[in-house]
Write a structure and sequence with these properties.
It is a single chain. This protein is an all-alpha fold and about 200 residues long. The chain has one domain. It is built from 9 helices and no strands. It is globular. The protein starts with a helix and ends in an 11-residue tail after the last helix.
Length: about 200
C-alpha cells in the first residue's frame, strides 16, 4: 500500500503539472473532473480488451543508455512505444486524475494504513474479469456529486486510490513506477495535451 506522505506528494505534483498545462484556467465542477477519471477507467478496460500491457525493458534500457542531451526525447519515444496506452499506463492516469482533483479541491484523502493481502483480493476478484473489477472502482467514483461533503470525498477517493494500488498488486505490477513515469511524460506535453479540456 502507498503511504499517506507519498499520496500527498503525488497530489501536489499532479495538480502542478495540470495547472502548468492549462487544465485549471476555469473553475470546473466535480462532475467534470470525475467524468475524466471514469473515462480513464474506460481506457483501462479498452487496453485490457486489446491485451495492451507495458514492456519495461526498452524504457529502462533507454533510461540507462541515452546521452544527456537527448535523454528525455529518447526516453519519451520508448515510453510512447512500450508503456503509453497500456492497462498499467491507463491505471496510472486514473490515479493522476484523482490526485489532480484532490489538489484542485484542496482535499486530503483518507488512506487507510491496513493493507489487503493477495489472498483477500483473490477471494474478492479471483473470478472477476478486469472489466468487472473496474466496474467496482467506477461505482466508488460515481458516489460523488456536487453536494458531496469534503469528508465524504476524502473517504471515497482515498478508497479509490487504495483500490488502484491493490489492483496493481493483484495484477503484479508497480503502479507507483507507472504514475511517476506518466507524470514525467506529461511534463513534456503541450497545453491540455492538445485537447479542449
Amino acid at each position: 500500500m502507498i503511504s499517506k506522505e507519498k499520496v500527498q506528494e503525488l497530489i501536489k505534483r499532479a495538480y502542478s503539472i495540470a495547472a502548468t498545462h492549462g487544465f485549471h484556467e476555469v473553475d470546473l465542477s466535480n462532475a467534470h473532473f470525475l467524468m475524466l477519471v471514469v473515462s480513464e477507467i474506460g481506457e483501462m478496460v479498452e487496453a485490457d480488451r486489446k491485451s495492451c500491457r507495458a514492456m519495461y525493458d526498452a524504457v529502462e534500457y533507454c533510461e540507462k543508455h541515452a546521452d544527456d542531451e537527448t535523454s528525455d526525447v529518447s526516453w519519451g519515444r520508448y515510453f510512447e512505444r512500450d508503456v503509453k496506452d497500456t492497462l498499467e499506463d491507463e491505471l496510472a492516469d486514473v490515479v493522476i486524475r484523482i490526485c489532480d482533483f484532490l489538489g484542485t479541491r484542496h482535499i486530503e484523502p483518507i488512506i487507510l494504513e491496513e493493507t489487503s493481502t493477495s489472498d483477500d483480493w483473490a477471494n474478492l476478484w479471483g473470478k472477476d474479469s478486469v472489466n468487472e473489477q473496474c466496474y467496482g472502482l467506477t461505482k466508488i467514483i460515481t458516489h460523488i456529486d456536487e453536494d458531496t461533503s469534503a469528508d465524504d470525498i476524502s473517504r471515497l477517493l482515498g478508497a479509490s486510490i487504495a483500490w488502484c494500488f491493490d489492483f496493481a498488486d493483484f495484477h503484479k505490477f508497480d503502479l507507483l513506477w507507472h504514475v511517476e513515469n506518466k507524470m514525467r511524460y506529461n511534463e513534456t506535453r503541450s497545453i491540455r495535451h492538445g485537447k479542449n479540456y
